[in-house]
Amino acid sequence: MSNKALKNLLWAFGLAVSLVGGSALSTKMSGQTPTKSVEKSRPRRADNSELPSPSPTPTVAPKEEVPQESEEVVRVETNLTSIFFTAADSNKRFISNLKKEDIRVLEDGQAQEIFTFQQNIDLPLSIAILIDTSRSEERTLPDEKAAARSFIEAVMRPEKDEAAVVSFTGDVTLEQGFTGNLDRLRRAIDRVEFVPPSGYIGGGVVVGGTPPISGTNQILAGATAIWDAVWASSNEILSDSADNTRRTIILLTDGEDTISQVKMHEAIERAQKADALIYAIGIGDSYQGGVDMGSLKKIAEQTGGRAYFPRSETELRSAFAQIQRDLREQYLVAYSPANKARDGSYRRIQIEVIDPDLRKQNLKLNYRPGYFAKTPEREAPASRRALP
User: Fold this and answer.
1) What are 161-209's pLDDT values in tens digits?
2) Which one of 85, 201, 241, 302 is most buried, counting C-beta atoms within 10 A?
3) How does strand 60-62 pair with strand 114-120?
4) Are 217 and 223 in contact (CB under 8 A)?
């Protein structure tokens, strides 16, 4: 098929989808094909009663005033499973001289034949920066925003990488779609703010007497839906990023989820299906309960990322430096699974060092612990966005 015919086909597909009904992630991105959302169960209050009105699967609402741009490319499916990993010694120094014969890969305990082994030190990044703007982060939001700005300035390469900015309370909002423009990203971060619910008098206290916007909106305002934010960002933002990038979520929060529709394990599974690493930066207010380190460590480690709890600017910059090494100084190992079933099942992965001399160094390998097998309905080519 010629390039012209392919472009016409993509244009016609985008027009047809837009006429049908729009997207759960309805951005203003020029030329972006809307995506379909899936209905989910209604959120509940703490007493397990349902909220007043139905609510769909967690989605990312756009900021209307933010222009965004993108292009379309065609994704090509392969039968190989690709795993990225890093290696470090006991002093946390990165090891960059591993060879294919130094390791073995097991899937569900069965050794796999490695087809590709290489080091990736210059892979483009697709990063979703998630900023918690709930009541518990009212006083620490400036610290979160400063951390987000520091991250993009330390890690982003405008000519190669792209990032999106998402804020969340009980709702999830797209502040800026994927772009490599640092000025756009800075402006999006600057726009993020804490919006108090009606009747809010500060310190996490809401009093009666002020008419709420609506029953549902009043409950969502100021609440914290961390797992919804991770789920929606993985499903609607990172899953639509270019195929040749490392997909990453930088999660800035205290880890205290209060109202998510989805469970933590569902958010982890969705991130795994999007091949997204999660790096959690725990920033919390000691007067509001501090930081839930356990939940942040779990969601990070289960996706192949890490959790950090910086207590100073120096520790924060050290965390960003390590994240950058993780994302850039990686090994890629690819294999064709011995288990050919396309059943959507979860496959557990182990990467082991088998070289005797290297084993004595007690190297720590960091990688995602598994993946979900493809299913037949996912075999058809899907449109993917190219980097700007």
Assistant:
1) 999 999 999 889 999 999 999 999 999 999 999 877 655 555 555 445 4
2) 241
3) unpaired
4) no
